Amino acid sequence: MSPVNLIDDLNLQQQQAVMAGLGPVLVLAGPGSGKTRVLVHRIAYLVRARRENPHSILALAYNRHAAVEIRRRLVDLIGDDARGVTVLTCHGLAMRLAGVSFADRAFQASDSAFEEVLQQAVRLLRGDGLLPEEADEQRDRLLAGFRWILVDEYQDI
């Protein structure tokens, strides 16, 4: 799909958000206005028009259903390139950063267990207990390879 086709079916404000520059972009809009659609099209635009490496893109979703939906939409737009994009829930990212897995546990992970993992990941990203330059180095190591971080439904986090 050509870059023009990636934005043809978006309204003007959505097109502007998708093609925004290299800095942070905040899409502030009401429910059902197409925020997730903009996020997916922005990823597709970065991969196809800007020629960004899909492996350098991290998309965060609030829950597994939203993550699955983002992956599905990406495949529809950019095909196999979508496989290179990392799409995680916030809990999934926290577990990855903290090196925690609940996969081999015989019990259901509790809300408190997830909350502790989230707090551990936040402490790692903040660099608690480290000098500022060490904290920056640690954060760079933890997020190594990700040039783009896009967050869906940020207000729910």
What keywords describe this structure?
157 residues; three-stranded parallel sheet; mainly alpha; single chain; 49% helix; globular
Structure described in brief:
This protein is mostly helical and 157 residues long. The chain has helices spanning 3-7, 12-18, 35-48, 64-78, 90-98, 111-126, 132-142; strands spanning 57-61, 86-89, 148-151.
List the helices and strands and how they pair.
Elements: H1 3-7, H2 12-18, H3 35-48, E1 57-61, H4 64-78, E2 86-89, H5 90-98, H6 111-126, H7 132-142, E3 148-151
Helix pairs in contact: 2-3, 3-4, 5-6
Describe the protein in words:
This protein has 157 residues and is mainly alpha-helical. The protein is 49% helix and 8% strand. The chain has helices spanning 3-7, 12-18, 35-48, 64-78, 90-98, 111-126, 132-142, and strands at 57-61, 86-89, 148-151. Strands 2-1-3 form a 3-stranded parallel β-sheet. Helix 4 links the parallel strand 1 (57-61) and strand 2. The radius of gyration is 17 Å and the shape is globular. The chain starts with a helix and ends in a 6-residue tail after the last strand. The model has no long low-confidence stretch (mean pLDDT 88).
Number of helices: 7
Strand tally:
3
Quote the distance from N terminus to C terminus: 33 Å
Poorly predicted runs:
none
Strand order of the largest sheet: 2-1-3
What is the arithmetic mean of pLDDT? Answer: 88
